[in-house]
Amino acid sequence: MFTQIYSSSNAAQRGIGAGITAGAFWGLVFLAPELTPGFSPLQLSAGRYLAYGIVAAVLVARAWPRLRRGLSWADWRGLAWLSLLGNIVYYLFVAQAVQSGGVAMTAIVIGLLPLAVTLAGLREHGALPLRRLAPSLLLGGAGLACIGWDALRSVEGSVPGLLCAIGALLSWTVYAVANRRWLARLKGISGQEWSSLVGVMTGAQALLLAAPAFAPGSAAHTGAEWLQFVGVVTAVGVFCSVVGNALWNYASRTLPMALMGQMIVFETVFASLYGFLWEARWPNGLEAAALALLLAGVASCAAAHRKD
């Protein structure tokens, strides 16, 4: 539906499909803390990104000589900054927010990303005026208000969890804008290769987290719990980081910033769906209305970008 609304261009259709699929993978991130009770956010972040770094290093090994010659010191500094902000810092905030305030509250706040990134993209060259994007922003805001109202009336608030969720929102908004601009400047490096390089850099940074995260004296776990932890962080590292980030980078090079901002809504949609499956229940009226409004907001934004 969204590909038909936006454009008949095959590249645009593939870009929207890649953005939706990336959201489907990223939605799994919100389940990881629930699947690994007793493990700290620092352990989850270190484990996920060590797995990401190892897989990314294998993927980029053959192209490494060419990529090394094609990157300047400024590019390496950009990689380090993007890796820290969009991966390490972001996931530390998310994991702590989920454990302190729950999946619903965290998904609600992270669900503001479409609005934040869309507004950040208004000053991009060729961006549509705010009046043409207003309907999609209002629909998305209404959907998030439905989720927020339902969650706040049924779940006890957690100030630390809320602050961590806001921190995750801010860090990933800056990352999304900066990463897109960096991709636009790169020559001879694909989105997948850039994602793998970010993964290698993130894995190196995760090594610094591993020492305090898994230091002797931390909470004891059984062999079965460690096995489950390794399985979860490896799956999240591969599917959410390697595959999801590569798909997102492809979409970032294909779609306008404002529409890219709306693509992030699918992370919230899929995170909510996974949460319903985890809790073995159907969405209530407000939750169903919220999902419908969020999807309508994306469709409206795609229609605003339709090429005549």
Write up this protein.
With 308 residues, this protein is mainly α. The chain has one domain. 80% of the residues lie in helices and 0% in strands. It has 14 helices and no strands. The longest helix has 38 residues. The chain is globular and about 55 Å long. The N terminus is likely disordered.
Please render the helix and strand layout as text.
Elements: H1 2-6, H2 10-26, H3 32-35, H4 41-60, H5 64-70, H6 73-110, H7 113-120, H8 130-154, H9 159-185, H10 191-213, H11 223-252, H12 257-263, H13 265-279, H14 285-304
Helix pairs in contact: 2-11, 2-13, 4-6, 4-10, 4-11, 6-8, 6-9, 6-10, 6-13, 7-8, 7-9, 7-12, 8-14, 10-11, 12-14
From the alpha carbons, calculate the radius of gyration and give it in angstroms.
Answer: 19 Å
Structural class: mainly alpha
H/E order of the elements?
A: HHHHHHHHHHHHHH
Shape by Cα distribution = globular
Poorly predicted regions are: 1-6
Tally of helical runs: 14
Percent in strands:
under 5%
Helix content: over 70%
User: How much is the average pLDDT?
Assistant: 80
* CA distance, first residue to last residue: 17 Å
The number of distinct β-strands equals 0
